[in-house]
Amino acid sequence: MYVERASAVLPLAVHRPWPYLGRMHGTIEKVSGTYDYARLDASGEGERAAARMEARALEPASQGLFEALVAPYLEPSPRSVLELGAGPGALARRIVAARDGTRVVATDKSDVMLRVAERLAALAPGRERLTFARWAVEEAIPAGVEGPHDLVVSSVMVPYLDDATLLSLLTKLRAVLAPGGRLLFVEQDLQTVSLHHERYSEVRELFVRSGERSLAFVPLRLRRLMREAGYRPLPVRSHLWQSTVFGPYLRDLISRAADEALAAGRIDAGRALAIVSELESASATGDFLYGLVYHAMAAEVA
Fold first, then answer.
1. Of the candidates 97, 89, 88, which has an alpha carbon nearest to the alpha carbon of residue 67?
2. How many C-alpha atoms does 26 have within 13 Å on its Cβ side?
3. Which of 11, 188, 283, 299 pairs as cysteine with 17 (C-beta 3.0–4.6 A)?
């Protein structure tokens, strides 16, 4: 299974749904433990980042998230879906597998992510209805992406865009939507992160930068920008993601955050190892629990 391969790719090391936390009007700060998703091709960490994202998509909670927040917007079955920031393509694969008559155009700005996505999709159900295209959303809409599409979907992309870029994107997307088409953004609410640990405050400290806690990103600004771009926001849907196993995704995230805290002198090597060991022990005894609320923010053309 890919989870096993991902475990090999994402080893425990003490040597980015806590990703970027964006300020309300644009400056984006990288949070401890995350990859530099905005510059993956240049950083050389694209394969590792893709493995982390795919490992998360293979967790049982991912299917529950899909059924709660994405599936309702696949009724009636859309003829064409455009995905933005598709990463290794897990959501695109899930959509074509769930809807026989739907085709998906999955885009990402990273060539590495697109190569991984095409590799993983090679034997996936519905592969003939899935295409990939490179698109950095700050740029003009490329050939092959124009649509018309009945649904434009994105997952955990909004935090990487400032307000001006996001408003420009929303405006451009009106040109690719079919009549009656809708937008759907599935985003994390980092204010809700919970993790069972006897000294949870120590784990949270791994994600403190410069001695200050960053405010968790709540992407409700998206609704205001949707209205400014000529859309009618639909009611927000929310879903609690729950993981009961300390799997490859969280292991890599917390291990990398511990590495960075160690390098910054905020913890010592023994404590960095102990935090991960304690989470492994909790997972082994069935006492591990991680939770995070996701919101689905959708809109239709006004």
1. 97
2. 7
3. 188
Residue 109 backbone dihedrals phi, psi, to 5 degrees: -85, -15
Its pTM stands at 0.87
User: In this structure, which amino acid lies at residue 28?
Assistant: I
Give me 268's structure tokens: 């010592």
Asked if residues 241 and 296 have their Cβ atoms less than 8 Å apart, the reply is no
pLDDT at residue 24 is higher than 70: no
In the numeric block, which tokens belong to residue 150? 């009945």
At what angle are helices 269-284 and 248-263 packed, to 10 degrees?
Answer: 160
Alpha helices (H) along 123-173: 163-173
Q: What are phi and psi of 54, to 5 degrees?
A: -70, -40
In the chain, the DSSP E strands lie at 21-22, 28-29, 80-84, 103-108, 130-134, 149-155, 177-195, 231-233, 237-243, 290-301
